[in-house]
Amino acid sequence: MTSLVELRGARASLGGREVLTGVDMTLERGEIVTIVGPNGSGKSTLMRLIIGAVPLQGGSLTRAPGLRIGYVPQKLQIDPTLPLSVRRFLSLPARVSDAAAAEALEHAGGTGLEQRQMADLSGGQFQRVLLARALLTRPDLLILDEATQGLDQPGSARFYRLIEQLRQELGCGVLMVSHELHVVMAASDRVLCLNGHVCCEGAPEHVASAPEYRALFGSGTQGALALYRHQHDHDHGVACDHDHDHGHAHHDHHDHGSHSDA
Amino acid sequence: MTTGMRITTTTTMEATPMLDDFLVRAALAGLGVGLAAAPLGCLVVWRRMAYFGDATAHAAILGVALSLAFDMSIFTGVLVIALSMAMLVSTLSGKGYAMDTLLGVMAHSAIAFGLVAVSFVSGVRIDLMAYLFGDILAVGKTDLLVIWGGAAMVLVLLVWRWQALLTATLSPDLARASGINPERERLVLTLALALVVAVAIKVVGTLLIAAMLLIPAAAARPFARTPEAMALIAAVFGGVSALGGLQASLWFDTPTGPSVVCLAALIFLGASFIDLLRRGLSAQAK
Ligand SMILES: Nc1ncnc2c1ncn2[C@@H]1O[C@H](COP(=O)(O)OP(=O)(O)OP(=O)(O)O)[C@@H](O)[C@H]1O
Ligand SMILES: [Mg+2]
């Protein structure tokens, strides 16, 4: 089975500045991968590179042929001069039946919003509608850029359950960006820590203990992770493609230096 | 300026006698432009391209000079220049220039150079006013054919690309993710804009084409809950402005192009007033 997306040494520049420098990444069908990284580390740029909105400056990007992508952008500003009901928004760019629209909304927890104007929605409702639209394309790959921003606690929990359920129903791959580190760790198969380049990647508990990750997020996040780690403390392969003085992350390894700007 | 125009009209007396009446031709010409400009105007408004419309429309006067110099039809000359200008502006905006200043510079230089060029080419032979403010009463049968042909092309183009245009307008990234190329949609829009400019110059003139794009669309906004509704309402307003403006120009013996735009502006005023009233009422109800 071919990968949904494969990046090899991918580079991207925005406004004349190199934002992504040599990113390697693969995404398989039915896999949930989360990108973590500080603000401005190029997470959104990576998503936009994959959907084709940012040109590839070097390296390679391979998408499975005929790949259908459901994309939830980090922000979407709707011009106030554009009247747009939720129902109409769901029919962009492909028209969908009322039944399909209602089902997608229900899936995403936005039942009954059809007749509302997009501009009148609350932040959380807006997010749910964006997700509903992404689901309507029956995607092979869901790309979610901080899709839980503005969702209330139950909404967020429900969201991650939904992602899990969709992966099983549709068999789609999921690539998401999140800052909710503790939730991410429990909800993903693989975590990729990004800071202009891939600092480290692998199963969540390994990334959490990788020095590169700690250098970026500090050990403050360890508290939240401890619980998770204790329950899942068995070995997964971890790939830290970082040519430092070590090739692997060890659990007893402590912070060394920082990675700050790439 | 209404009476002089009638004489210059060359009418070939054949078939469809209805079209022999210059007023019927004028009405049809106005209607064609109003109907095509309004939906396109909606897209221009949504995409915040108002100045873009201005620059393209103003360049049309350069197209007139070109047509006179090379003895082409006005339509061809204007289409070529409007298309070049629209492409230029579109490319520059894609490259992230500070657009408002640059567009202002281009819009005004285009009209200045155009006027100078026209005076070089023609001496005093032509009536500049006709190109600046339109000359709807002088619309001949061929003009009518060109106007309706152009308007139909614009409408077909918009209907055909509507879903993609709308998605790309909403967000280029969402468009990309769905396999739509926003650059291509911008090209479609550019082409439609140039076409509207080329057919509208005879009706409302260079200076007021952008008004026919913007005003009906702006007036339609408060009454619409979907993009399609806004485009339809704008088309109705555009059509009503064209016909009503023509009628008013006959009643008050005023220049037709400006009269059409005046009516559109009045409709906008009325629409804004109704919107304000409605908001006031709904605020009180709470
Ligand atoms: N359109 C743009 N033009 C120029 N630079 C940009 C543009 N968009 C983003 N950048 C820069 O690229 C870098 C990466 O931005 P990106 O949006 O990918 O970060 P991010 O990891 O998604 O951050 P956040 O967590 O805040 O969403 C940042 O330094 C940002 O300033
Ligand atoms: Mg981001």
From TrEMBL, chain A:
Keyword terms: ATP-binding, Cell membrane, Ion transport, Membrane, Nucleotide-binding, Translocase, Transport, Zinc, Zinc transport
Record GO biological process: response to zinc ion; zinc ion transport
Residues covered by region (Disordered): 238-262
Domain ABC transporter, chain residue ranges per copy: 5-220
PROSITE patterns for the chain: ABC_TRANSPORTER_1, ABC_TRANSPORTER_2
InterPro entries: AAA+_ATPase, ABC_transporter-like_ATP-bd, ABC_transporter-like_CS, Metal_Ion_Import_ABC, P-loop_NTPase
This protein's name: Zinc transport system ATP-binding protein
Organism listed in the record: Pseudooceanicola antarcticus
TrEMBL record, chain B:
InterPro entries listed in its UniProt record: ABC_BtuC-like, ABC_TroCD
Subcellular location(s) per record: Cell membrane
Transmembrane segments: 22-46, 58-89, 101-124, 144-162, 191-217, 229-252, 258-277
Membrane topology field: Multi-pass membrane protein
Annotated Pfam families: ABC-3 (PF00950)
Signal peptide: none
PANTHER family reported in the protein's UniProt record: ABC-TRANSPORTER METAL-BINDING PROTEIN, HIGH-AFFINITY ZINC UPTAKE SYSTEM MEMBRANE PROTEIN ZNUB
Protein name (Swiss-Prot/TrEMBL): High-affinity zinc uptake system membrane protein ZnuB
Organism: Pseudooceanicola antarcticus
Organism lineage string: Bacteria, Pseudomonadati, Pseudomonadota, Alphaproteobacteria, Rhodobacterales
